[in-house]
Description:
Oligomer: single chain
Strand order of the largest sheet: 1-4
Largest sheet: 2 strands, parallel
Strand content: under 5%
Order of helices and strands: HHHEHHHHHHHHHEEEHHHH
Structural class: mainly alpha
Radius of gyration: 26 Å
Number of strands: 4
Amino acid sequence: MIAIGHLAGYGVSTLDLLKVLGNTLGDSQFKQCTVIAALALLISVGVTSWAVDERVLIASKDADVKSGAVKVVAKILKTTWNLPDRIRAICWVQFWAWIGWFPFLFYSSTWVGETYYRYTPSASIADSSDPLGDIGRIGSLSLLIFSIVTFIGSVFLPFVVRSPDSDAKPGQRNFTPRPPAAIASLAKLLHGSKPDLLTAWMLSHLVFAGSMFLAPFVRSLHMATVLVSICGIPWALACWAPFTFMGTEVNRMTAPSTILANGSSYRRLPNASDEFSGPASSPNFLRLNHLDRDLEDDEENEDSSTGETAGIYLGILNLFTTLPQFVGTFISMIVFEILEPGRHPELHKGEDVEGGGKDDVVKKVTEGPNGIAVCLFIGAICAVGAAYATQRMRGLYKRTR
């Protein structure tokens, strides 16, 4: 669904909206894209709110005392500081990976457009009535191809990559594969040749890093488009792998099963006597602190019984996804300040340029380093760090399996 959203958004951005819609939604390409994106967000959230039935929250008698804002924040901080080893490893991979992804997602379309106007002799941004819009449309075309590659990867990669629990012990698997006898040997051979998800995730970091290492050396629109398109496969895994591993770990911790001597497993179902007095168990009810005992001495049972642990861990993963945005923005600010202070005056019509005419400045910009390309290069270095963290994560999985 993320890939479909990319396709729709970038497809709209490639159009000249000022010619199609006039000034109805704004007087620039960017403003109109923003309005369309906001309307799409309102519609999708509205449909979701209308279609989803929430369960009624039933809290225990002391829930109000326990659920204060300070206590919640303290619990999140405590959980973040004491993360289980596997979840900590996932979060650090996500942290380093997204330092590289944020400059790409923020600036790649601008980088492609700038590359076209810098290094294409026949292109002249001074003749454009909407230079920023033109740069955005050219960049959006490359991102449209990027989103097509992402969509194809999102559809086919799950068929060629082994799931995280496929190598688990028989008693720890959610299911036992039983292919037809006629193709059992072929299915076993194909399964053995598939890379596991952890390997695919690590390789995706390296593919992204290799592409972005070349960014400062790109001198053509076609090459820039190729590099952006290649990143579609790593992006498909970036939207899939971390949440798969996190979901696997949360399920492993919050839904423990008892392994028998023969390798099979079972889960204990709650008895009616364990429930506190209240409405009958129903999918329409969500019970909070539903065990009728003092939970101050057993916070882990509280978390595992209500699913609170899952929410906290997913929130922490989102935190490790968001913090790189600040790191990436800070790095970009320094790079732009050093390499491109007051550059690109050709985007501002009618302004005089100190020390020469616009043609001189455009020539200087063409010969100088591209600040966005340098940011993408730094992101590639961080992607290599993410690949190293993923490799360490593999060692951790082997030790704790």
